[in-house]
Design a protein that fits this description.
This protein is α+β, with helices and mostly antiparallel strands and 432 residues long. It folds into 4 domains: 80 residues, conserved putative lor/sdh protein from methanococcus maripaludis s2 fold; 105 residues, Elongation Factor Tu (Ef-tu), domain 3 (Beta Barrel), CATH 2.40.30.170; 138 residues, no CATH class; 32 residues, no CATH class. It has 6 helices and 25 strands. The strands form 8 sheets. A 6-stranded antiparallel β-barrel has the order 3-12-17-16-15-18. Strands 4-11-9-6 form a 4-stranded antiparallel sheet, with no helix packed on it. β13 and β14 form a beta hairpin. α2 packs antiparallel against α3 and α5 crosses α6. The two termini are 70 Å apart.
């Protein structure tokens, strides 16, 4: 009897327990932890409001320093070098007329004396021939000849030959004296030694190359100008009738060979032909007195030194200028309109290494994005640095935090779920 009762009670207890568990689960459903979608992340960008301005064009170029005047110092006499100036060395400065080399002049002094003796002999012969001619005329008249004596009788050809001997002797003396003077090799201008080929004790002949020298009054730099930059630069030109258009553009030359080196110069001439290889026009810049000691005692410019040039061009009125760093793929930029990114295709009027002059695509008042951006699309919401965020304010109003919801539910004496249902109903009613 007890066994039957136990068999009946066990299923009954299981059924009742199951019913109680099901009812408990239904009465206590799981609470949702998410309240709407998470707020979208926004991008903060810096912007620059574009303004029209009068812009001074600066054209970038480069070149190598070369002497304005460069020469080969050549011997015009022969002999052994017996004296060398202290300035006759690579890099040495010299003055016009300074004796750089002295050749042994004893042979040339002997030649001068020999030429002087030959001149005296020729002058003696001339005097004798004049006397013979005068005596021939007297003899002709003594003979009673009433006719005019011819040139042969008067020894005129012999007299002319004697005069020629004198002239030849004079020329030989002048040549010997000139050769003697040329044993002192002097500087043709104020300059500097680029390289030397001889030294003390060496024997040189006529036309021997002694040294390479250059003038120090100025140096020149040949500068290529891009074709697109030509309308924005003032170039000096010379015309066939002799008239000139002297519009010297100033140039700032820089180099980092020895620290930061800076020189001021100008464009002095425009070459007469387009370079066939580069298909570019070249202009020549000049630095005057480049070896004068500077205020900061900077190193002077060197021949062969590579320098960069910034050429002052024209002033363009009402120009829109933007940095190169704000341009993407060379064709577009981003601006901000109502806190939204907008992509703008642009075209250039002029460009250098730092800035671009806009031809079309942007207007004064546009807010140009200067912050580097990655892969972003037009229409992305952004915040402008330094301005209050509109999107954050609106996001905070539409999506209260969990703590705010619990506080509001407690104040109203209802659960958070009931408060959320109430808020949804209010929003739906507002939309209707």
């Amino acid at each position: 009897m007890k066994t039957k009762l136990v068999k009946l009670l066990i299923p009954t207890v299981v059924i009742v327990a199951t019913i109680i568990i099901v009812m408990f689960i239904k009465g206590n459903p799981p609470k949702a932890k998410r309240f709407g979608s998470a707020p979208k992340a926004t991008i903060s960008v810096a912007v620059e409001t574009l303004k029209k301005q009068d812009y001074q064009i600066t054209i970038d170029s480069f070149g190598t320093v070369k002497p304005h005047t460069q020469s080969l110092l050549v011997a015009q006499a022969s002999g052994q070098i017996i004296a060398v100036s202290d300035d006759f060395r690579e890099g040495g400065f010299f003055s016009k007329g300074e004796v750089l080399l002295q050749l042994d002049d004893r042979d040339h002094q002997a030649e001068v004396k020999s030429a002087q003796a030959a001149l005296l002999t020729a002058e003696q012969g001339l005097l004798e021939e004049k006397a013979r001619g005068e005596q021939a005329l007297i003899d002709w008249q003594r003979l009673g000849n009433k006719q005019q004596a011819n040139s042969l009788v008067l020894r005129e050809p012999q007299l002319a030959a004697a005069k020629a001997e004198v002239l030849s002797a004079q020329a030989a003396l002048e040549k010997a004296q000139l050769d003697l003077e040329r044993t002192k090799i002097t500087a043709p201008y104020d300059g500097r030694i680029l390289s030397r080929n001889v030294d003390l004790g060496q024997v040189v002949n006529e036309n021997s190359e002694l040294a390479s020298i250059y003038a120090i009054d100025s140096v020149e730099i040949r500068l290529p100008i891009k074709n697109k930059d030509l309308p924005f630069i003032r170039l000096p030109e010379q015309f066939r009738d002799g008239s000139k258009k002297d519009l010297d553009a100033t140039v700032k030359f820089t180099s980092d060979l020895v620290g930061e080196q800076v020189w001021q110069g100008k464009i002095v001439r425009t070459e007469g032909a387009i370079d066939e290889t580069a298909q570019q026009l070249y202009v020549v810049g000049q630095i005057t007195d480049p070896y004068k000691a500077g205020r900061n005692n900077q190193y002077p410019v060197k021949v062969g030194q590579y320098v960069k040039a910034e050429i002052t061009g024209k002033v363009v009125p009402d120009a829109l200028i933007i940095p190169n760093s704000t341009i993407y793929q060379g064709s577009y930029v981003y601006i901000v309109q109502d806190n939204v990114l907008q992509r703008k295709e642009i075209t250039f009027l002029w460009q250098n290494a730092k800035y671009v002059m806009i031809k079309s695509g942007l207007s004064a008042g546009d807010k140009l994005v200067t912050t580097p951006l990655g892969q972003v699309s037009s229409g992305t919401a952004v915040d402008i640095l330094g301005e209050p965020s509109k999107q954050k304010n609106s996001s905070n109003k539409s999506r209260p935090s969990r703590e705010q919801l619990e506080k509001q539910a407690k104040e109203q004496g209802i659960s958070v779920e009931e408060l959320m249902k109430k808020r949804r109903a209010q929003r739906q009613g507002g939309k209707q």
